Amino acid sequence: MIHTMISIILGTRPEIIKMSPIIRECQKRNITFNIIHSGQHYSKNMDSVFFEQLELPAPDYNIHVGSGTQAEQTGNALIGIERILLEKRPDIVLVQGDTNTVLAGAIAASKLNIKIGHVEAGLRSYFREMPEEINRVLTDHCSDYLFAPTEKSRNILLKEGISDKNIFVTGNTVVDAVYQNLELSKKKISILKDYNLKKSGYILATVHRKENVDNPVIFRNILNSFLRISNEFNIPVIYPIHPRAKKMMEMLDCNLSGIIFTEPLDYLSFLQLEQNAKIILTDSGGLQEEACIMKVPCVTLRDNTERPETVDVGANILSGTLSESIFKSVEKMMSIKAEWINPFGDGSSSKKILDILNKDQLL
Ligand code: UD1
Ligand code: UDP
């Protein structure tokens, strides 16, 4: 066996969760790897709680980029990651998703001629105002291994001129993460009881996208819609609030006493809330996927999505951010039957990814 090394680059909550099955698979196969954390997320409940609960090894490096403008975050991560890659010279780096950390990792590696594997390649919202859309396009175009979750994402990449030989449809590692943790969540967690919620008797909401929460008019409108939905359908709404949204909410002068707010939750508690919700209202990418996997109807508080597979199978609907259309979408999704097939794979995505790298003698 050739002795090679992978650097796994991550920096935010969803990257930790979606990389966790790959990290576990590397451990199982005794593959040499290190974890480079950009430090983009750093609060305990956005970062270390996931390492602890998912029993992941602590990052070997943390660059501590923290919060800042798009350029500050990306630039500082780029400088920090390059330093580590220069010293450690891994054979391949893996990045996952569409954050500023992902772009920084991909640029740093590509300029050093280190191979790049992009996990969750080929997603497009076709909405360039979203910083993540720029990150997706640029990362895909400098990657050597594009691990596309579905045929749809493979076709997007082909249309952009990326060679078929670099694209591998592997499913999404989020399915692995859900399957690996759902049983554990059922055994260990009692969050429904803690908040006095009943199975299928509440709505789970999350909103954190810059486009939604940094605009006070849009954010206020979304929050007021939650109140209206809670009143008219006589159902509680629980909202574990992301720190970006919390910061904005504190500046809005609204009476939100009808919504149950919590701090960001650990993964096992959150999975349990997702699985037992009547419906999920969200602008999160990961939640659109997880809702679809767990057969919970989803309303996405956006005009576009880079996860159209969820809409195609009938698991998700785009409501935009206007009150009336959110209400109508909720009304529709409250009464549908969850009979779709999950389009993101069977939970063996991390195995497939490592098999592909192994076949190319990268492991
Ligand atoms: C980032 C990603 C987004 C992803 C989200 C996952 C980009 C461009 N955005 O958005 O794609 O969906 O992570 O949650 O990379 N904060 C804390 N503690 C933390 C982290 C953030 O308090 O641990 C607060 C800070 O006030 C910060 C704000 O949240 O300014 C936003 O954080 P940032 O990492 O810039 O963007 P996210 O909105 O988290
Ligand atoms: N999540 C969590 N606790 C929470 C909210 C979300 O563990 O309080 C998980 C969720 O299950 C999913 C991921 O975080 O796996 C989604 O992250 P987020 O919505 O922040 O980012 P996005 O997916 O939109 O990039």
TrEMBL record:
- Annotated TM spans: none
The segment(s) forming the UDP-N-acetylglucosamine 2-epimerase domain are 25-357
| EC numbers on record | 5.1.3.14
Example of a GO MF term = UDP-N-acetylglucosamine 2-epimerase activity
InterPro entries referenced in this protein's UniProt entry, alphabetically: UDP_GlcNAc_Epimerase_2_dom, WecB-like
Q: Which domain of life is it from?
A: Archaea
Q: Which UniProt keywords apply?
A: Isomerase
EC class of the enzyme, as a word: isomerase
**Entry-linked NCBIfam families:** wecB
List the protein's name.
Answer: UDP-N-acetylglucosamine 2-epimerase (Non-hydrolyzing)
Q: Which organism is it from?
A: Methanochimaera problematica
